[in-house]
Amino acid sequence: MLEPIFIIKRTDRTSGGAIRNRDIQRIHQHLLLSNLVILPSDTCYSLAACATSRTLYQTINVILDRHDIPISIAFPSFLVAESFAEFDHYTRLLMEKFTPGPITIVCKVTDLKDPENKYPLKEVVRSKDRTVGVRIPDSYIEREVAGCTQYPITTVAIRDSKGNIVQNLHQAIDIVLKGIQKNKFKPDVIAIEGDFSFKKHSTVVKVDGGNLKLIREGEIDFSLIKMVFDNDYPLSNVEDWT
Question: Does residue 43 contact residue 200 with C-beta atoms inside 8 Å?
Answer without folding.
Answer: yes
